[in-house]
Amino acid sequence: MSGPSFDEPEVTIELTVNGATVTRRVSTRRHLSDFLRDDLGLTGTHIGCEHGVCGACTVRYDGEIARSCLILAAQTDGSTVETVEGLSDSGEIEALQQAFLARNALQCGFCTPGMLVTAADLLRSVPKPSRDEVRDAISANYCRCTGYHAIVDAIMAASEKLAVKS
Amino acid sequence: MKPALFTYHRPGTLPDALALMAEHRGGARVLAGGQSLMPLMAMRMTRPEQLVDINRIDELKGIRDTGDTLTIGALTRYSEILRAPLIADSLPLLSEAIRHVAHHAIRNRGTIGGSLALADPSAETPATCLALCARIVARSSAGEREISVDAFFEGLMSTALAEDEILVAVRIPKRPAKVPHAFLEFARRKGDYAQAGIILAPSHGGVAENRAVVFGIGSTARRSAALEGAMTNGLSAEAKAALQQEVTAIIDDDEGAAYKLPIVMTLAERAMGRLKP
Ligand SMILES: Cc1cc2nc3c(=O)[nH]c(=O)nc-3n(C[C@H](O)[C@H](O)[C@H](O)COP(=O)(O)OP(=O)(O)OC[C@H]3O[C@@H](n4cnc5c(N)ncnc54)[C@H](O)[C@@H]3O)c2cc1C
Ligand code: FES
Ligand code: FES
Question: What is the pLDDT of residues B252-261, one digit of tens each?
Fold first, then answer.
């Protein structure tokens, strides 16, 4: 029987994920979110919309936050990816995690990994943000539960705690 | 939402990328920041057979001082443009516009070349390049050419780029920070595409004419003769009537002409107010 071919084109990639080198063969159309979740079992990176608008899939890519659903796994050869698991294990987002818990800044928790990665990025560049700056920073991360107020509170609280420490 | 099957290429040099574009003429698409192409592919609104990833091509990156102009490589990301002192000094209108584009995580990946090649009528960067009298540098394996921005945007998401061409850079006349300008847009939420916007770039040493652009309505950003006249003579009742006529002629009823026209008129008045010393 002849017909269209559905062979998945594949490439081999080698990259650093949360400090460890990983080498895998991936189909060219696999995006980084699916690669992290299904190939590496890092399910902290969530997939909401798969077209860049919800922010649930936010990771640190070569040091800067980006949507992992808009990056092909094939593109990441030679690059560095940090996920919420990595930032959690290193202790970088501990103050944020504590503050999210203390302020009830999550209900279902679906948006939380993306919020944490985005908030950590803000606090790295602006250690003492205003509420407006916090709102601006998380304006591309959708939360369908909290109404955002508690999330802004938590990020403000974490920034104050970090400021006292340093 | 997964893209259709494709073959992935990651050329390391521009000649290699151009050779791929020539070989697969029509079947190949350039992947830059992916902030528009990836969603379009995920939604199967486009399904290229060959994807040419230009992200590792160093000669497409960076901002150079080229005398009376700045030359911005196609792969320069929004975030880099916002950080660049050269842009702050010599093209502050461009950074003001890009602050309205999307959000931090998107600006870290999206590129100026990708935005120009996409030619979305509501996008800030194409409209601003039109106001700034830019020239688009395009290359194919046959050679390089420069296209005036006035001839670049041909219609809804369509440009003068040929199928085998790669946009390599954009050349923009410097515009000293002390020369006034106005950039105003209305978006429903911060970071959203504009419902409508107006850019006024009065003439200066580098560009001999007033340039006014209306975007977010119709199939592409357009210059407005009514506003360009008003920049010299004031926004008189006649100028307003002329602007209203221009907008009504290009606005599509599907876009909600009754909703957008008052936005444009209000933005026009505010923008003119910004030019006053
Ligand atoms: C949530 C979200 C919100 C957004 N909001 C806005 C907004 O408010 N305003 C706005 O302007 N944009 C917005 N964008 C789009 C963003 O600006 C894109 O980055 C931009 O439109 C395309 O740039 P890119 O580098 O990502 O190009 P890609 O997505 O990689 O490519 C876009 C198109 O251009 C072609 N192309 C790219 N580079 C070249 C080149 N050098 N030569 C020839 N062809 C090329 C591609 O083949 C493709 O057809 C948003 C995107 C998202 C996901
Ligand atoms: S899943 Fe990537 S932004 Fe929504
Ligand atoms: S906590 Fe449910 S989406 Fe934010």
Answer: 777 788 889 9
User: CA-CA distance, B225 to A134, in Å (whole number)?
Assistant: 41
**Range(s) of the domain holding residue A125:** 91-165
Share the mean pLDDT of chain A: 95
CA distance, residue A154 to nearest chain B CA (Å): 20
- Looking at residue B1, its pLDDT comes to 83
All structural domains of chain B:
7-53 (3.30.43.10), 62-173 (3.30.465.10), 182-274 (3.30.390.50)
Residue A4 included in any domain: no
Asked if A12 has any chain B CB less than 8 Å from its own CB, the reply is no
Last-in-domain residue among A28, A50, A83: A83
Distance from CA of A27 to the nearest CA of B (A): 9
| Distance from Cα A166 to the centre of ligand 2, integer Å | 34
Q: Do the domain assignments include residue A56?
A: yes
- Three-state SS across B185-251? EECCCCCCCCCEEEEEECCECCECCCEEEEECCCCCCEECHHHHHHHHHCCCHHHHHHHHHHHHHHC
| A162: contact with B, CB 8 A cutoff | no
Let me know if residue A157 belongs to a domain. Answer: yes
Rounded Cα gap, residues A120 and B78, in angstroms = 21
The reply to whether residue B53 touches residue A75, judged by beta carbons under 8 angstroms, is yes
Please report the pLDDT score of residue B255 as a whole number.
74
A123, A60: one domain:
no
* Same domain, yes or no: A30 and A62: yes
Give the tens place of pLDDT for each residue, B10-66.
999 999 999 999 999 889 999 999 999 999 999 999 999 999 999 999 999 999 999
List all residues 6 or more positions away from B203 whose beta carbon is below 8 Å from its beta carbon: B209, B210, B211
Q: Do the beta carbons of residue A114 and residue A58 sit within 8 Å?
A: yes
Contact between A8 and B10 using a beta-carbon 8 Å cutoff: no
Does the predicted model carry a pTM greater than 0.90?
yes
Which residue in the block uniquely carries the two structure tokens 């950003």?
A: B221
Judging by DSSP bridges, how do beta strands A80-82 and A10-17 pair with one another? parallel
Determine the Cα–Cα distance for residues A62 and B71; give it in Å rounded to an integer: 25
Number of domains making up chain A: 2
8 Å CB contact between B119 and B159 = yes
pLDDT in tens, A91-121: 999 999 999 999 999 999 999 999 999 999 9
d(CA A55, CA A138): 9
Separation CA A122–CA A141 (nearest Å): 13
pLDDT tens sequence across B91-142 = 999 999 999 999 999 999 999 999 999 999 999 999 999 999 999 999 999 9
